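Contributing new records

If you add data, match the layout below exactly. Sequence lines come first and carry their own label; structure lines follow with theirs. Keep one chain per record. Anything else will be rejected by the validation script.
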Amino acid sequence: MRLYVGVDGGQSSTRAIVADDSGRVLGRGSGGPCNHAAHAEGEARLRRAITESVGGALAQAGFAPSVRLRGACLGMSGGPDDKRRIVSELMAAETITVKTDAEAALEGAALGQPAAVVIAGTGAISVARGRNGRIARSGGWGYIFGDEGSAFHIVRLAMRNCLAWEEGWGQPEPAELKKMFLQETGSSGLLEALHRFYTPEWPRRRVAGLARRVDGLAEGGDKASRWILRNCAESLSALANTSIEQVDPAGSGLPVYPLGGVFRSRSVMKRFELSCDDLGCPIRQPSHDGAVGALLLAYRADGLEPLQVRIR
């Protein structure tokens, strides 16, 4: 039996899937986040995430972690360049391919067809494939320089709006957002809350998790929260449009697949759908997730084209 592994490594979690050469899925596993491997702490996190996710998938399939694989593909958040060496040390495979997690997501969603994916979770990125097979990306620069439309971006906008209002130049009035920040951080004022976000007590994932509270306030009618989510949706549609224009300047109306936790927000999704409709890009639901997408890329790297991946 020839075994193949696909891994979807993100900023919040890592998922792995193992299958045979007919496309029959044998096992799945999961682990923690795996980005920023260039630093010692990040490398340890990456090693742990791959060991847990791939090891769990192989165990579910009835194989030892040391089993020889025919092929493996890993779609990794933060890019593949700083992860190839580590991955090669952890997996016994004849062929190992490392891609971005967005490329794996695009493969799983569109099954190799021309399309664009927009991923909005802790971070945000869009990747498109044109009819000529060209692939281009937009965004995904990380929370310091980009990730507009991400969960972290939502919270950053909310805090900026609160601080600006207190200084007399922000709008709309964020009374409910301010109350939320003070409650969540146990702070007596906004500056105190802001400084807490710079401490280890509030890592990026925890800050991004407050996006759900912003969404809840928007659902309750809070104008400031609605304004923030509208800004988020417009940023995400701009990412989609930019990636599509790079592979098809004529604007061919490629289908768009929205992925990630931010799109669970009805406010974001509704506005995003309207923006994509204006661009002539229909919204589609993905065929499979990023782990299956990485698996399909592992097959392709070995010259295989399974007609169907059978999810057990």
